[in-house]
Structures are given as C-alpha cells and as structure tokens.
Amino acid sequence: MVQAIRFYETGGPEVLKLEEVEVGDPGPGQARVRHSYIALNFIDTYFRTGRYPLALPNGLGSDAVGVVEAVGPGVTDIRPGDRVGYLIGPQGAYAQARVMPAEVLIPLPDGIDDRTAATLMMKGMTAQYLFRQVVPLQGGETILYHAAAGGVGLIACQWARALGVTMIGTVSTDEKAAIARANGCTHTIVTSREDIVARVREITDGKGVPVVYDSVGKDTLMASLDCLQPRGRLVSNGTSSGSVVVDSQLLAQKGSIWMTRPAMLHYIQPRAHMLAMARELFDHVLAGRIVSAPQQEFALRDAAEAHRALESRRTTGATVLVP
C-alpha cells in the first residue's frame, strides 16, 4: 500500500483526500515507479475543478520523477533502478508510487538530480515546444510572454536568453519582476501598475511584437492582440484567468493575426520525438544555460494547501510535492 491523493467530486482544494491505495505489479508494457518528487502544475487545478472533465473518483497529477522498481513483459529500454521522469499519461502522479506506461518514461541523465528534474518535465518541455516547435524562435526576435515568473516562465526566460531573443515578460508584482529579470527576461511589465500595450509599444518603438505567448487567457486576450504586429502570432497556451473565445473577424481587424491553442500531446509524440525534446532541454541544463530548482515544496499530504498557494498567486517558479 502507498499513500496517494484522490478526489471524489470536483471543487476547491478541500476535495483532495490522502488515502492508502494498492499498487500492483506492472503488466505488459508497464513499469512501476517510486516517486521522489511530484510536480505541481496549474493544469492540475483544471482537473480538480472540473474544467477538464475526469471520470471520478480519480487521482491527480501527470508529472513526476523517481526510480523504476519493476517492469512488465515487453519493456526493453527501461530497467529497474533507472531514474526517470514523465509528463504525460493517466492522472495519478500525486502518489508515493504508481504503475505507468513505460513508453512515456524519460530517462534522466546523471548530471541532473531528481529535485531539479521535477521542475523540468512538464515546465521545461513546455518551454521547448513553445519556443522550438509552435513558433520556432531563431534569435533576434522580440516577444511578449505572460506570467514570466511562473514555473514555465522562469525556464522560458532563460531559454530566450540562450537563443538571443529579447523577452518582454508580464508579472503581477515588483518582486516577481526582479526574479524574471534575474533569469534572463529583458524587460518586465508589472501589470498591477503598468499598461501592457503602452509598455510594449514603448519598448518596440511602436512596432509591436511578432509573437505573444499567453497562458493567462481571458484577462489578457485583448492586450495580447493589441501588442502584435500585423500578421503576428498569438500562442494561447493557457487559460488561468478563464477560457478564450475569439471571433475570427476580430483577428482580421487586429492585423490578420494568426492564433493557435497548442496542446503538449500533439507536439510530444512519438516517443523518439519526446526523447529528442528532452535531450535538447537537458543539454541546456547540463551546460548551465538553464538553472532550475523548486521555489516551494509541500508534503504530499499538504497537496490542498499547495493548490491554494498556486491559485492565489503566492508562488514563483516551480512547486513540488514530496511524497
């Protein structure tokens, strides 16, 4: 038996319950992983509240690192004792151990410890597919990135710097602005006291930016559109403030804007591609171009409190649960 977080109804953080659950042996194509760290992602709150439906009761979380304890028949590239991480697969990462499809497990290099790796699976791979696939940045661009001091944001700041990209990042406080700049964000906009569009136009000499990465959603949609150059691209990669509904005529009026709502699942498969994405990310970390560590840690039993901290914007960078 192991401890795991379960929930039987959607709602606030209080619906998360710590329980004893049975973890069996892995079947064909599966591996059992003993977790060392579990990552907290904003998408977890969407499943908890029912914005993204799940059959209930269910577990929560899709992102963790740990050690393989056993593998099932047919698994050849993962072995007991391997250190691995994952970011896709069934919900249920909020647990001391679980059985997972072996094809989603990513081997971790010796030079990256588990605590660091726990901040890289979903968040680092998100930065990879946003900057290297959704809109491939070549260097020299000026971009607008919302929530620059968040878990993905701090990695994005460093990745932009490594690529030679000028990043304008929005944050909610001066403290978060300082953190974003320390991680490579070229310019910061404190949204509690600065106008996003006016500052972007000032920084870019009135031209606007060719691409906006917007994980906030409803509250920043119009500002994002107004910051774009004609034929610019809006990457709507999150909806923390609410869903986005856009009339296509508005995109024409704002300058023939291209808009996409990417999902990790469509950029990370097949397995060979996922491993190549991870190698690019790990190479940056091993070379020191990206430095990442949890800024907040909570015990697994305190998952509800971790959710409260995340939703109240009391966190910066990555948050992890320790089983």
Automatic annotation (TrEMBL):
Database matches in Gene3D superfamilies: Medium-chain alcohol dehydrogenases, catalytic domain, NAD(P)-binding Rossmann-like Domain
Keywords of the record: NADP, Oxidoreductase
Coiled-coil annotated residue ranges, if any: none
CDD domains named among the record's database cross-references: QOR2
UniProt keyword S-adenosyl-L-methionine, yes or no: no
UniProt keyword tRNA processing present: no
Domain spans labelled Enoyl reductase (ER): 11-321
InterPro entries from the UniProt entry: ADH-like_C, ADH-like_N, ER, GroES-like_sf, NAD(P)-bd_dom_sf, QOR-like, Quin_OxRdtase/zeta-crystal_CS
SUPFAM superfamilies: GroES-like, NAD(P)-binding Rossmann-fold domains
Pfam families: ADH_N (PF08240), ADH_zinc_N (PF00107)
PANTHER family assigned to the protein according to its UniProt record, in alphabetical order: QUINONE OXIDOREDUCTASE PIG3-RELATED, QUINONE OXIDOREDUCTASE-RELATED
UniProt-recorded name of the protein: Quinone oxidoreductase
Organism of provenance: Pseudorhodoferax aquiterrae
